[in-house]
Amino acid sequence: MLLYERFLGRPFAGHRDSVSELVGDVVESAVEDVLSKVSVSYRKTKRAERITGFDQAPDFIIPDEFNPAVIIEAKLTEDDGTARDKVARVQRLRTLRDEKGLTYDVVACIAGRGFKVRRNDMRRLLVATEGKVFTLASIENLVTQTRIRDYVTTPIS
């Protein structure tokens, strides 16, 4: 792939960059589907959005940024560098929570081989989230295994 990119030049890289966000939306869409199915109120942040109290805005805040009970970071990655960056973001959210004496759950929803490559990063992710890591295969447990269950308005089927 690298040789092909060098052969074609920047147009190939530009195309890859433009579709990478669409590919990454797979996990975020799955989270939205789960939350919508049980009518949970949530705030999905936009790219590069600033949220008071956070260095970088998390992907989802439940119920909202004024009273966060659950913070979700969602990512599909095929390389270990991107996975490492996401793990660092999750760890930072945990540190912010602990420094401010807050009690929100820090949750990660992940997919892709990037998270499988570096076992130590996966260990750090599990510690930072206190085990609240969900894949596309286990995302249906997102509501019942986190404080999201306290915000359900439609019975879980």
Mind explaining what this structure looks like?
With 157 residues, the chain is α/β, with parallel strands linked by helices. Helices cover 45% and strands 14% of the residues. The protein contains five helices and five strands. Strands 1-2-3-4-5 form a five-stranded mixed sheet. The protein is globular. The mean pLDDT is 87.
Essential attributes:
5-stranded mixed sheet, single chain, 5 helices, alpha/beta
Query: Any low-confidence stretches, pLDDT <50, length ≥5?
Result: none
Number of helices: 5
| SSE order, one letter for each helix or strand | HHEEEHEHHE
Write down how many β-strands occur, each being a DSSP E stretch of 2 or more residues: 5
Over all CA atoms, what is the radius of gyration? 17 Å
What kind of sheet is the major sheet?
5 strands, mixed
Strand order of the largest sheet: 1-2-3-4-5
Termini separation (Å)? Answer: 44 Å
